[in-house]
């Protein structure tokens, strides 16, 4: 791979957005991509089969063939593809190198790379860093798990450009170990690990394996690079000393070491540098809800400063930044009830964060497809916190209901597969339960795929239902 991809047979597993971008870039590099997807031909994303046919690119439909992978020069996997399928085992046994879409793209990227990982807050922090760098007038791109594949931007990477990357654990899993393809060229100028909470336990052997996967980002850093870690999250403790990067922490209170420290009265963030330098940032005008978003900001300030943004640009970006859609997004207020869309709260930890961020009693809409999580912390939030009632939808309605039942009012909606219809009923029921001065919060603690295309579709269904409800 170091010698170039020209003439090499590269099998791309998974033809979603990142697989498509990777195949196109490989072709432009003179490689011979083979596009492989488990779906039968008539279920591939529109246009992809035609694209391949027009360019003479081989396709494999309905399977990832062991023979296809064993005879490749390189196999590149999309993030959704599990790494222990038979085709990849065959490739490994035959000594064929395996990498991931993002890993391969990073190894070819010209310019400093910033990586942001963690269970929750990646997208918010990645967007924020992009905004700060733009405010600072620095050329940068924002890509990765956020929805724009980095491989799709390589063609325009003529001159060195800062890359701000959201990195999921699935993507990190396919970064090759030290001696794998392109590994020596992968380097994160700065890496932030925001937090760690149970998620994706359906894919990882256990919580430790999930944490290990995130921690690997630190293996791609040298002594000149920076590692930004959440000071308060004790779940990061087993990995704090990993890698060679210089440490910066972020957290609450008066910081006693280099990093970004948030004032508990929510008025400022203080940055302390290892050389003794200090900076203060004023939070006046910051519009995002919740202490978690100030933690995201603290990490984002450090990354942006490392990337070269001046403090003035950081300060100017703070009041200008808006929360991305479906992340504790305020929708409207009607008859004294406030409505919030946190459809992106797809695990228990983020739903708890949303609940902890609300200042008023909450009627929660939750449920969806489970990932093997324990819902009892939600019951605890109902026992001790502001969660007063819940309307439950989707496959996990029963399991969440058992956790909440003893502590708050619970209404379950019947699951009929019609997500938008179910959401209308759920919003109507939540509105009926809510008193003036309370909030209706969509924070499902689950994935959306049982009833919706994705979390965005679920969030749009909620918002549509809310506007319908308040108009009636
Ligand atoms: P990710 O890209 O990691 O999924 P997002 O920024 O999209 O992160 O946020 C995902 C969910 O987690 C949203 O519900 C959001 O409100 C919540 N969230 C954001 N930042 C944090 C954080 N630092 N800690 C806990 N929850 C967070």
Explain the layout of strands and helices.
Layout: E1 9-13, H1 17-28, E2 32-37, H2 48-55, E3 58-61, H3 66-70, E4 74-77, H4 86-93, E5 98-100, H5 101-108, E6 113-117, H6 122-135, E7 140-144, E8 162-166, H7 169-173, E9 190-193, H8 207-215, E10 226-230, E11 246-252, E12 259-262, E13 268-272, E14 278-282, H9 291-306, H10 311-320, E15 329-334, E16 337-341, H11 348-357, E17 362-366, H12 376-384, E18 387-392, H13 397-404, E19 409-412, H14 419-433, E20 439-442, H15 455-471
Helix pairs in contact: 6-9, 6-10, 14-15
This protein binds adenosine-5'-diphosphate.
Adenosine-5'-diphosphate is lined by residues 118, 120-124, 194-195, 292, 295-296, 327-328, 342, 344-345, 349-350, 353-354.
Question: What is the compact description of this entry?
Answer:
The protein has 472 residues and is an alpha/beta fold.
Could you please describe the fold and organization of this structure?
By secondary structure, the chain is α/β, with parallel strands linked by helices. Helices cover 33% and strands 21% of the residues. Strands 7-8-6-9-10-11-12-13-14 form a nine-stranded mixed sheet, with helices on one face. It has a six-stranded mixed sheet with strand order 15-16-20-17-18-19, sandwiched between helices. The N and C termini lie far apart (61 Å). Bound molecules: adenosine-5'-diphosphate (ADP).
